[in-house]
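Support reply, case 0932

Customer input (verbatim):
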Amino acid sequence: EGDVLHVTLMPRDRTDQGVVVTPTTTVRFAGAASLSPQAQRWMRALEIALRQVEREAGWTAFLDRADDAPAPAIAVTAAGGRNDQTSGTEAVVRLLEPCQARCAFCNFRGRQSDMVASLDDVDEHLQDARAAGARWVAFTGGEPTLVKELPEILSRAKDLGFERATIQTNGLKLAAPGYAARLKAAGLDAILQSLHSHVPALQDAIFKIPGAFDKGVAGIDAALDAGLIVGINHVTTTENLPGLGDFADWIVSRWGPRVYVTLSVMGPQGWGEDRLDLVPRLEVLRGPLAAALERLEAAGVSAFVPGVCGVPVCQLPDHARFFAEIHDPAPAESPSRRHVAACGDCGYRDRCSGYWTACLDAYGDQEIVAVPPQAAVRGTGPLGGGGAIPSGWGQSSRSSGTSSGSST
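Our regenerated output:
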């Protein structure tokens, strides 16, 4: 009937808040405020099947393993076809290759609207995106550098006429000798690389990979040496928030205006849906975020706060120039975000994707404050307030930082 139900099964000892709760398992659903009658029938059938399968030996151990690992899946529409995603002039292609990292905020979990599972799917997706008017393409994952055919995919994108090609990456493989230069020769123009702390031990702990910091830094160096445009994506959580200003200073001293910086903020989506404790409270985030943006700007380093993977511009109206959404006349919409009563009087209402429903439900909406219409500005100059990002780079609020665990 054209309906789709996206459910998540997890061990009951992780949470007992769900639409179905059995002795071993909690079942949750996403994508809507309530279940349709058809989805309710599906959920009852799922509960009956679950009661049977949990009697099988090994079910609990299986569920524990599955809950700790990436959940690759093939996205399909209700009719059985792919659900392609094109954001304005940029097509997003999620290559089905699990990431080595295990970041708690990764949104690569379960059904993804932009996922492709074979080279034929990639080619069809690229052709459809070009036919729809896309001029740029961003490859994300999982981890796109683990796809051995990535150079061929990049070449194909350029053959089809895409003007720019980007990968969103954890950067670990870029450190391999000659790899970044090979991707550049194949048609890669830029990378957006995850780097969530300047403290090696914390970066390694976030990725859950020993040596991730050193490899990530080497990957950025290699990308710059290859002539690629390099963006660094920092996802702020309660764990790395205290060091956000020092992270900005370190970026300035290490690379300066040779890179640009996306200051994303963790949201309760993907794997982060189960870790609301890692999502910074807005009132605590404002000061460190403003300070980091100002330090980067003062050094000529372009920096910006993305749309869905950031916070609303009302949190720092005096820093509106850094917010990608004010540059976008049609900001993204997410079923996991909403506007509140105060938003109705805000001058940014038409250029704001709202804030996470899970956070509003947990903490209330008192942190959301309207900006008077006469004080609201629209994006007219370069995004980022610092050294210029090449025209259009990073300015799509729909695609910036929403990537992979690599991204957001």
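We compared this against your earlier run and they match. Two observations from our side: The mean pLDDT is 83. DSSP finds ten helices and 14 strands in the chain. Please reopen the case if you see a mismatch on your end.
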